[in-house]
Design goal:
By secondary structure, the protein is α+β, with helices and mostly antiparallel strands. The chain has helices at about 45-50, 60-85; strands at about 25-40, 90-100, 105-120.
Amino acid sequence: MTDSADLPIPEAIPCTTAFEIPGHVIEKHLGLTWGVLVRSVGFAKGFTGGFKALRAGEVPQYTDVVDQARRDALQRLIGHAQSMGANAVIGVRFDSSDVGGGDAGLSEILAYGSAVVIRPA
């Protein structure tokens, strides 16, 4: 079984947590870009994950859901940045929160950063 965290994220444009991209000059800052989604664990994973949560350690059912949600949020961030005319995103960060109350089992995953236009130095 391949762990999805080991798979590369197919990026259409460079994305980095840094505020510069080595070998490139930032020509223009286009503003804030983001990708957001609300994800449910689902009954099957929630049920089996609930049993695994009774003992200490990682709960892979939840890890897989959160990992895929972050990947999807990053893809949406890239799409939003490209729609703004960006060819890169700097300062990428992730945030998450519960939505609909803790009992709803819904999580918001947000990827955000600064959309920029870069050129080789």
